[in-house]
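2024-03-11 09:14:02 DEBUG pipeline.ingest accepted 1 chain
2024-03-11 09:14:02 DEBUG pipeline.ingest length=154
2024-03-11 09:14:03 DEBUG pipeline.predict start
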Amino acid sequence: MKRAEVACVLAILIWTGLMLREAMRLNIGWEASGPGAGFFPFWLSTGLALSAAAVLVRALRSPPTERPFFPRGALPSLLKLAVPIAGMILAMQVVGFYLAGALYLGVSMRWLGRHRWPLVVGVSLLFPVAVYFVIERWFLVGLPRGYLDLRPPF
């Protein structure tokens, strides 16, 4: 398990290095109209790199175990997580971020989390609205609208 964990963390560190390099090509500072184009990618990549480095240190300090990295019977759980994410990515191309995000949250909360319908509906509707106001109205950053150009009606 230790080798697989270290390999995954190294892959994440390589990915964050590429993301940091690309973010640095853009403006990572604050502009007159708000954050520069590289601001969010830079700080998200930095946080991911620091987290991955902490996991790497923990993995290197821990003794090796015989426990498998991907235990038998884990594939159904992995697919339950991956299928809604893939569905959201595909749906986002057609219906845009907001409706795809609401559908993803609803499906994930109900199917994986087994939450009650009032909570599922509330979160699925309120989260995309909050994202719209924070990202599009406050930071003035457009999110994918899809072919149907769906967005909140306000």
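2024-03-11 09:14:41 DEBUG pipeline.report Residues 2-61 form one domain.
2024-03-11 09:14:41 DEBUG pipeline.predict end
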